[in-house]
């Protein structure tokens, strides 16, 4: 092969070999060959001639010799190397040639075998075709046979069916029986014209009837669990039982169970008079939960109406109701729906309008039971009269309401949740009413306390602080006198009322708390706040305060002061305070707490204020009237019971006049505690003296003098009429202003007018007249300072003395100086 | 069409007693009794000439004492009773007597009215209503619409029924009723009911009103605490037999149905001081007149409890235009209980008011200072009632 290549491309191979040998043989020379030095023995451009010439020229002999040996040595080693390489390459060529030769032989052998294989394959194909051709007939036969076999098995199943069903019945494997029967039913139906099948069918029917009977019996017994029951129903439905009947039965069965729940609940409502021990045992627990459950309820002295008579609290009751009744109801609804509605919708039953029918029945059933449940719940709620703890009720209502939402989810479109909400609303409004009445009775109780405090001045501090929730601390001043404690009583009263209102508001506020589910209802956001709380509770209470105050005027009017006057005064001030600040404060508080949005018209603050002011006015007028009547009564008795004709010469002022002045002074003090001074007409520092001298000496003397002359009557009348022409008409029982002076003026007016009228009904002797003179002078000395216009006192006293002079048989007035001496002596 | 202005007449003396001459149905005539301790007391006979608005007066002397109460016989124009105070031995006693006016009291007056004041005639005493045992007669009541033969006097705690005989010159007590109880009980006022054949009497003592059956002289009803204070006066509704009006020191006028005395049917609180007198109009019982020591006289229209609760329907045109404002306001409303008018002509306490027996639309009132005022029912109201 080498020869072929060498001969074919001699130049190239030569070049390659040359390259090959050059690198391998002359490693050192290759470096030098790069330089184009022709003398480099290893270089490509080596020129032996030049090299020899150069050597000969340059080197000595010795050196040449050395050079020569060295060169010989090198040649020799190169030769040996070359020999080794050639030998190795030769060996390789040999083995390659051997291999190729061997391959050539092998391929030939393989070709033979391949031929043999293809021949075999064609033989196999031929065989196979032949076999399948022969098996064709048998295969068809087998298929047919297996079809027959299946049919036979089916028939066998049918023939065995009655027995199988019976066995199932025995084993109570109803489900399996029904499944089997269902499988066979169509076939039997189809071939029922054949007598044998007919027989089977009849047998099956008989058995299935029996089975249905048994199922129904089981269904009716009712002892089984809900799951069993639903299974029963399912099977019966599959057996083409009338769905309506089943619905009814199912529901009636459920009803009996639910009713037992309801009866349990009802039993709890019934009061247990005999079970007082139970009640006693539960009472402290109840109160402790109440205390723990209502941190907001910090009222010091909530009026407690006796707690309901039943032995469980409302939360327990509702819990029980929810857990037993509502959850069973939900269960019933769910399984019923599963059975009759959802199930039926997919199956063949849907066509018979069964879902609608079933749904209607369910609605009626739920409605009926829920109504009964609701009536029980309502009865229970109605028993919840104690207002001490609202949170319990609210929680109960919340739970009640929440649980009904489950029903709502199960049964969309049912009126039940709405009815539940209505119950909650009713309970809430009822509660508001109860709070109102509690507030009212609290108010009346506070008034009773105040009354007692007024009646027993010594104990005033104790009882007032007891009633007022500790707002009043016994100061040194209050122990002295009842009237001293009036402002304190007032402040404690109004503070305790305000506290009570606040705590009630807090309790009611629970209804609208965020965590209470029903607080989201529009009613609790809108109407409950504005109509319920604001109008029915707060506004009504304020109105009640005003009205009850007014009733004090009415009832006491005829009987003549069954109400202590101090109470009237105090209430008047209370109402006035309400008018000025308290009402708007309370209403603002309410509006803020409840975020009242006024959709419907509400009572404006001004109306209430007007009402309060009217009440205050009426009370104050009545106070004036009562106090005036008390003094009037003293004066009247003193005039009526004395024999004025035969009295002795006056030596001193009658005790009753001193009493009148004393009482007026004490009333002045009392009123001054609660009302401002008020304005009075300016008078000089010595007005009593000065005006009295005018009153007595000039005008009055002239009148007396006139009476002596025969023509007197005309003159007297003339004088008095002229006098009256110039003085304003005095309304005796008239409205007073809210200040001390006006009040005292009113009282003095009433008293003096009574005095005048009484004097006119009597006949006086000389000393009788003089006594009146002395008395009037005394009154003059002391009363002017209390009134707004002292001329009023002058005028009335003037009239009294004038009238008594007229009614005197022997009008000889006393000397002014003597009168003064007597009066100053006291 | 304005209402006529009130007519005012002044007496020289102070006066409390006023009555209409009950037997006189043609002339408008009032009798006034004066109170004076120093001079002879008088009975003024006030004749009112409706057409000319003029007052004619005649004076009769009543020398026995100051007159506290006066009553005219329903049968005989000339006969009247008075209760008067007599002072003797430093003692003051209240007595009652029947008097006859001199027959010719009218003759002198027309010639010279001034003359009569200087030289008045004297009343002729017919008899004393005095049984010797009881003094302090508070008032004398004639049998309403009777024949002038029977009177009742209320003295202290006794009601004495007198028979007047021999032309009223002799009086005998035919029956007595005694008020029994704790303390010194004293009748203050009374009224003889015109109903039930004149067999009932109502009396007031302190704060209570009592009804009496005159046939048995026993109490038939009692309104305890009818008023908060003293009851001053009573009057029977002339048309409704069970209705009674009362007034007293609590400034109130109350209307009662004596069949149910627990609560008054109606209460008026218009006066600002004691109410001394209450009078139903004799014909139209919705009109009630009250007199008070607040110097006012109030005419009220109590339609709802009258015998004509529905009144007459009246068109607005028929109402006169010149009325005083407050009257017009009242006039335009449908008939409601209301104050018709407040009369303020008096300067002193008004102790008595009376309707005329001749003209149902006219009334007189008397204040302590001796002023007698004659007024009429406002025309608008009058026509509304009539038409």
Automatic annotation (TrEMBL), chain A:
Q: Which species is this record about?
A: Perca flavescens (American yellow perch)
Q: What is this protein called?
A: Vacuolar protein sorting-associated protein 51 homolog
What sections of the sequence does the record tag as coiled-coil?
A: none
Read off the Pfam families from this record.
Sec5
Keyword annotations? Endosome, Golgi apparatus, Lipid transport, Protein transport, Transport
Which cellular compartments is it found in? Golgi apparatus, trans-Golgi network; Recycling endosome
Q: Which family does it belong to?
A: Belongs to the VPS51 family.
What does the entry give for GO biological process? endocytic recycling; Golgi organization; Golgi vesicle transport; lipid transport; lysosomal transport; protein transport; retrograde transport, endosome to Golgi
Output compositional bias ranges, type Polar residues. 285-308
Supply the InterPro entries for this chain. Answer: EXOC2/Sec5_N_dom, Vps51
Q: Where does the UniProt entry say this protein principally localizes?
A: Golgi
Any single Gene Ontology cellular-component annotation: GARP complex
* Subunit and interaction comment: Component of the Golgi-associated retrograde protein (GARP) complex. Component of the endosome-associated retrograde protein (EARP) complex.
What positions does the domain Exocyst complex component EXOC2/Sec5 N-terminal occupy? 41-275
Please give the residue ranges the record annotates as the region Disordered: 276-308
From TrEMBL, chain B:
Q: Which UniProt keywords apply?
A: Repeat, WD repeat
Under the heading Gene3D superfamilies, the entry gives:
YVTN repeat-like/Quinoprotein amine dehydrogenase
WD repeat boundaries on the chain = 224-266
GO biological process terms held by the UniProt record: protein ubiquitination; regulation of cellular localization; regulation of transport
InterPro entries from the entry? Beta-prop_EIPR1-like, EIPR1, WD40/YVTN_repeat-like_dom_sf, WD40_repeat_CS, WD40_repeat_dom_sf, WD40_rpt
Superkingdom assignment: Eukaryota
Q: Does the keyword Glycoprotein apply?
A: no
Q: Where is the EIPR1-like beta-propeller domain?
A: 7-299
Q: Which family does it belong to?
A: Belongs to the WD repeat EIPR1 family.
The UniProt entry, under PANTHER family, shows:
EARP AND GARP COMPLEX-INTERACTING PROTEIN 1, WD-REPEAT PROTEIN
Q: What is this protein called?
A: EIPR1-like beta-propeller domain-containing protein
User: Whose protein is this, by species?
Assistant: Perca flavescens
């Amino acid at each position: 092969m080498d020869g072929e290549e060498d001969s074919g491309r001699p130049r190239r191979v030569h070049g390659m070999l040359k390259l090959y040998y050059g690198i391998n043989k002359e490693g050192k020379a290759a470096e030098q060959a790069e330089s184009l030095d022709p003398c480099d023995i290893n270089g490509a451009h080596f020129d032996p001639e030049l090299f020899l010439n150069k050597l000969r020229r340059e080197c000595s002999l010795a050196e040449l010799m050395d050079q020569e040996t060295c060169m010989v040595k090198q040649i020799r080693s190169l030769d040996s190397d070359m020999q080794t390489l050639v030998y190795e390459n030769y060996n390789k060529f040999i083995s390659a040639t051997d291999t190729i030769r061997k391959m050539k032989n092998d391929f030939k052998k393989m070709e033979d075998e391949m031929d043999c294989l293809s021949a075999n394959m064609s033989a196999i194909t031929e065989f196979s075709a032949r076999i399948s051709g022969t098996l064709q007939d048998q295969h068809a036969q087998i298929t047919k046979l297996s079809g027959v076999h299946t049919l036979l098995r089916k028939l066998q199943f049918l023939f065995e069916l009655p027995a199988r069903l019976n066995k199932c019945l025995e084993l109570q494997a109803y489900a399996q029986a029904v499944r089997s029967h269902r499988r066979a039913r169509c076939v039997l139906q189809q071939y029922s014209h054949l007598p044998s099948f007919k027989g089977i069918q009849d047998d099956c029917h008989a058995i299935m009837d029996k089975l249905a009977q048994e199922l129904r019996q089981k269904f009716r017994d009712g002892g089984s669990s809900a799951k069993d029951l639903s299974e029963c129903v399912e099977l019966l439905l599959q057996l083409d039982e009338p769905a309506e009947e089943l619905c009814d039965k199912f529901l009636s069965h459920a009803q009996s169970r639910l009713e037992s729940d309801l009866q349990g609940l009802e039993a709890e409502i019934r009061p247990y008079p005999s079970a007082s021990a139970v009640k006693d045992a539960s009472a402290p627990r109840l109160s402790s939960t109440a205390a723990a459950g209502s941190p907001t309820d910090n009222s010091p002295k909530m009026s407690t109406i006796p707690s309901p008579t039943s032995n469980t609290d409302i939360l327990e009751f509702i819990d029980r109701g929810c857990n037993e009744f509502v959850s069973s109801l939900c269960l019933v609804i769910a399984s019923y729906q599963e059975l009759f509605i959802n199930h039926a919708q997919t199956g063949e039953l849907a066509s018979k309008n069964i879902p609608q029918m079933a749904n209607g029945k369910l609605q009626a059933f739920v409605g009926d039971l829920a109504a009964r449940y609701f009536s029980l719940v309502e009865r229970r709620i109605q028993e919840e009269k104690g207002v001490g703890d609202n949170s319990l009720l609210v929680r109960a209502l919340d739970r009640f309401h929440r649980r009904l939402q489950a029903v709502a989810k199960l049964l969309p479109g049912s009126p039940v949740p709405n009815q539940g909400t209505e119950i909650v609303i009713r309970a809430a409004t009822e509660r508001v009413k109860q709070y109102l009445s509690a507030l009212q009775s609290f108010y009346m109780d506070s008034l009773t306390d105040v009354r007692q405090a007024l009646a027993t001045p010594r104990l005033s501090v104790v009882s007032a602080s007891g009633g007022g929730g500790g707002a009043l601390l016994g100061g040194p001043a209050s122990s002295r006198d009842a009237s001293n404690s009036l402002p304190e009583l007032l402040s404690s009263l109004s503070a305790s009322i305000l506290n009570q209102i606040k705590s009630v508001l807090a309790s009611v506020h629970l209804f609208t708390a965020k965590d209470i589910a029903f607080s989201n209802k529009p009613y609790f956001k809108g109407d409950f706040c504005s109509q319920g709380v604001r109008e029915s509770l707060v506004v009504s209470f304020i109105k009640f305060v005003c009205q009850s105050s007014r009733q004090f005027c009415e009832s006491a009017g005829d009987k003549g002061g069954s109400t202590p006057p101090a109470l009237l005064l105090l209430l008047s001030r209370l109402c006035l305070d309400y008018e000025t600040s308290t009402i708007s404060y309370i209403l603002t508080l309410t509006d803020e707490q409840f975020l009242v949005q006024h959709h419907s018209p509400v009572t404006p603050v001004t109306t209430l204020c007007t009402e309060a002011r009217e009440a205050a006015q009426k009370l104050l007028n009545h106070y004036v009237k009562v106090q005036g009547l008390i003094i009037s009564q003293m004066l009247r008795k003193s005039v009526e019971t004395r024999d004025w004709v035969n009295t002795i010469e006056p030596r001193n002022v009658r005790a009753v006049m001193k009493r009148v002045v004393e009482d007026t002074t004490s009333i002045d003090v009392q009123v001054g505690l609660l009302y401002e001074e008020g304005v009075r007409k300016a008078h000089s520092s010595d007005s009593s003296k000065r005006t009295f001298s005018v009153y007595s000496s000039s005008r009055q003397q002239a009148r007396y003098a006139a009476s002596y002359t025969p023509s007197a009557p005309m003159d007297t009348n003339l004088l008095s009429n002229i006098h009256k022409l110039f003085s304003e008409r005095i309304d005796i029982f008239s409205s007073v202003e809210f200040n001390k002076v006006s009040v005292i003026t009113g009282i003095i007016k009433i008293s003096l007018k009574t005095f005048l009228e009484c004097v006119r009904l009597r006949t006086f002797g000389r000393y009788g007249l003089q006594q009146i003179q002395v008395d009037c002078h005394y009154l003059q000395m002391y009363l002017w300072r209390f009134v707004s216009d002292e001329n009023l006192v002058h005028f009335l006293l003037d009239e009294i003395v004038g009238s008594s002079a007229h009614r005197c048989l022997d009008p000889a007035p006393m000397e002014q100086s003597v009168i003064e001496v007597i009066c100053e002596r006291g | 069409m304005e209402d006529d202005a009130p007519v005012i007449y002044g007496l020289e003396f102070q006066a409390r007693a006023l009555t209409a001459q009950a037997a006189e149905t043609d002339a408008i005539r009032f009798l006034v009794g004066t109170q004076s301790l120093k001079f002879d007391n008088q009975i003024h006979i006030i004749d009112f000439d409706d057409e000319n608005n003029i007052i004619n007066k005649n004076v009769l002397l009543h020398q026995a004492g100051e007159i506290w109460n006066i009553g005219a016989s329903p049968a005989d124009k000339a006969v009247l009773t008075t209760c008067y105070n007599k002072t003797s031995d430093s003692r003051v006693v209240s007595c009652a007597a029947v008097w006859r006016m001199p027959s010719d009291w009218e003759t002198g007056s027309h010639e010279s009215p001034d003359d009569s004041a200087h030289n008045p005639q004297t009343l002729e005493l017919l008899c004393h209503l005095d049984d010797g045992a009881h003094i302090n007669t508070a008032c004398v009541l004639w049998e309403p619409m009777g024949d002038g033969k029977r009177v009742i006097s209320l003295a202290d705690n006794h009601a004495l029924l007198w028979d007047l005989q021999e032309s009223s010159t002799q009086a005998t007590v035919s029956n007595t009723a005694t008020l029994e109880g704790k303390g010194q009980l004293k009748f203050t006022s009374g009224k003889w009911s015109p109903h039930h054949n004149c067999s009932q009497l109502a009396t007031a003592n302190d704060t209570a009103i009592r009804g009496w059956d005159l046939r048995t002289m026993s109490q038939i009803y009692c309104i305890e605490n009818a008023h908060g204070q003293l009851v001053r006066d009573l009057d029977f509704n002339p048309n409704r037999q069970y209705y009674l009006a009362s007034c007293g020191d609590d400034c109130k006028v109350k209307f009662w149905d004596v069949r149910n005395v627990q609560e008054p049917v109606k209460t008026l609180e218009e006066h600002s001081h004691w109410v001394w007198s209450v009078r139903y109009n004799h014909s139209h019982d919705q009109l009630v007149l009250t007199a008070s020591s607040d110097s006012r006289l109030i005419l009220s229209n109590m339609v709802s409890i009258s015998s004509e609760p529905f009144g007459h329907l009246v068109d607005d045109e028929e109402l006169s235009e010149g009325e005083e404002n407050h009257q017009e306001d009242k006039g335009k409303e449908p008939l409601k209980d209301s104050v018709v008018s407040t009369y303020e002509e008096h300067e002193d306490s008004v102790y008595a008011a009376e309707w005329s027996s001749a003209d149902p639309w006219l009334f007189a009132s008397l204040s302590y200072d001796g002023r007698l005022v004659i007024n009429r029912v406002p025309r608008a109201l009058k026509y509304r009632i009539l038409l």
